[in-house]
Amino acid sequence: xxxxxxxxAGFSRTSQRVGGGIVALFKGRMLDDEVxxxxxxxxxxxxxxxxMAARFVASFAESHRGMEVDGPExxxxxxxxxxxxxxxxxxxxxxxxxxxxxxxxxxxxxxxGKTTTIAKLAHNARKEGHKVMLAAGDxxxxxxxxxxxxxxxxxxxxxxxxxxxxxxxxxxxxxxEKARQDKADVLFVDTAGRLHNRSDLMAELEKMVRxxxxxxxxxxxxxxxxxxATAGQNVIAQxxxxxxxxxxxxxxxxxxxxxxxxxILVALAERFGLPVHAIGVGEGVDxxxxxxAEVLAQAIMGED
Length: 304
Hints:
Order of helices and strands: HHHHHEHEHEHEHEHEHEEH
Radius of gyration: 21 Å
Low-confidence stretches: none
Distance between the termini: 17 Å
Helix content: 40-55%
Shape: elongated
Oligomer: single chain
Largest sheet: 8 strands, mixed
Structural class: alpha/beta
Number of strands: 8
Number of helices: 12
Mean pLDDT: 89
């Protein structure tokens, strides 16, 4: 199954809920306040976000009020609006060759798929011809260290790791020095994801960045937040929280094959405007790819 086929399959519940729901909603009905309210509720329920849902419905109402419209027409108009919102943020991660190693700090809550996302990003970077190294900076969990070492073996990327409980900043420092010695092009640095004590996490991330800059004053060159699509509107709070801890440069959305509310990507794009570098629809190393706004909109709306 191709990535696009997996994406379409993953969004089948969303497209049934939204695309199919719109067709059913407008069948034989005039565009009145009741229908518009139902449409807005449908979009909010698919995690498009209240602002995006209200803006689309208001715009559509202004141009079509009192007219008899059919569901496929409404679906096409909505898809165009989604593409307009998503296109500016659909930007793949670009490695700056002038920065060697190009240091990518990867943050996110535990369970979002952070470690496997690093492996997939590393795999893609290697396919592009880059020499890649990984750093097991989530020293809080032994399982995270072990998992990254396993993924390093699978993807052919050396991993800098210490024992559980070690200083994560020391891991990052050693990794940058090692990446420089080995002339690596890209270094992906994993981090802890616990949010129950934000002050501890903030202190840890700040220390990691401060120590990195002792080796390279410009590091990290990218800071990516990994988000789990199944968390729905909770990802909005995660962007706000992590954005308050470190300057985010981009997002990666995982587990889009496990949610019926795929509109969350549209809500994120409309609210934050941060680049969305990649989306994931499975566990395999090839299941994380840059996304096209048009392809994503088609998958969400169930267009043929």
